[in-house]
Fold this sequence. Notes:
Elements: E1 15-24, H1 32-53, E2 61-64, E3 68-73, H2 78-97, E4 107-119, E5 122-124, H3 126-134, H4 138-146, E6 152-157, H5 158-165, E7 178-184, E8 187-194, H6 200-207, E9 235-237, E10 240-242
Parallel strand pairs: 4-6
Antiparallel strand pairs: 1-3, 1-4, 2-3, 4-5, 5-9, 6-8, 7-8, 9-10
Helix pairs in contact: 1-2, 4-6
Protein name: Guanylate cyclase domain-containing protein
Amino acid sequence: MREPSCLGPSDVVPHRRLCLAADMEQYSRLDTRTQSAVQADLVRLLDEAATLSGLDRATWARQPQGDMEFAVLPEDTDSTVLGAFVHHLSACLASLNARQAAQRVRLRLAVDAGVATGAALGHAGPAPVAVARYVNAPPLKAVLAALTSADLAVMVSDRLYQDVVRFGHPGLDPAQYVRVHVQVKEFGGYGWVRVPGHGPDGIRAAVDGVSEPPPSADVPVTRRTSLSQHVRQGVAVGRDVNGGLNVGLPATPPQASPWRDW
């Protein structure tokens, strides 16, 4: 007879997955009845955008959080999510918000790709941790606050931007993204913001003074260092992240160079 086994942390096989989080703006200001209504709207919006993009929501590992949904998607969905899904989500939002009786829904969407695996209380890995920070990043919130006609603001991780957006996938224009610095709790790194229907100039104006990291007394401000997108560890449980992480900081100081390397 085979004895039952219990898998420990060392037995978890990590896989690269696409992770996203969609969070509603100013949800806490709504009354209970309206909160219930917009939660249903959020699920319907994500369902419709996925269907129109050819994505099967049944294959998503979804983790609802009231005004937010976190999800881990199958492999090879990166370009579809950043292209068709974002396009259809923006269009569905515009259609919903055009209804006179509807409560306006505005979303912050964060997307990253990396190691993610199921855990006892949610998901573990660098990508879930990063997405939890990106979706609450001050620059992303500042964009929606400044661009009042926008219904959707998207932040993409630097590694996903470099691998997918900058690579030149059809329907993805790197010029529409603006790089911003993100500092949330112990998280530090870079992301790229896009707002459908708005150009990069409006985004830059919105994040001016919000996204740049504070200068260090030990590092000359005239020099920029290269990034090493590295996250040590962490577990995402709802909106909470346990574990230290260090994203976008070089492992060793680079040699002085007259060239800008970014």
